[in-house]
Amino acid sequence: MIANHDILTAFAMTLFAGLSTGIGSMIAFFAKRTNTRFLSASLGLSAGVMIYVSFMELMPEAVALLGESRPERTATLYMLLAFFAGIAAIALIDHFVPEDENPHEIHSDDEYRQRRKLQRTGIMMALAIGIHNFPEGLATFASALTDMSIAIPIMFAVAIHNIPEGIAVSVPIYHATGSRKKAFWYSFLSGMAEPVGALVGMLFLLPFWTPDINALLLAFVSGIMVYISFDELLPGTEKFGHHHYGVGGVVAGMAVMAGSLLLL
Fold it and tell me: pTM score > 0.85 for this model?
């Protein structure tokens, strides 16, 4: 039987990993709202983070998990179905937002509409990252209960790569609203999905959680992240007229995520 102090230690480790998004979100406290170069680079960085983590971490992990009980070709097929289901789901959400409120329907290039688009982008990223962080929290919690020597490096690796995720959420929210508090709290709450994942896992899911469920969720979230990156983030870098800053941000985001994943 698992001791109470082991459960509390595992939960505390997951909370630490989730709180690290707050470090990234604090970038908004030091950013200048009028610095469109920084905004373009940050949107590019956000896209780089989300694209890299989707194609280099989440999707391969989904195939590996699905491949434990079926041929690799079948596992890949199931992963791709879940991936495109994620794209379809977020595209439907985008489609059914009324046109007069949908920032993708450009009626004018005024500052108001640009801010509305940025705010929506930040909120959608917070949702996608929060969904992504949920199974991460469950994984950190479960590993801490199983083997602390495995759990500690996982905790630090998750914490490090949560920092750019915090930036990805906070910067567009801040530029859209001018509120550092809103930017911080949206980013902070997306990170809190990790301890929530641990809590739900502790109470309900661990007895029923399967590698297949985990794998399909990872692939589904990958689809959401890739859609957001190509439909909102990358066009956003062009809109502010700093193409090369955006490209540099993409490369930097990929490099940061590559470095953090090497720690796993």
Answer: no
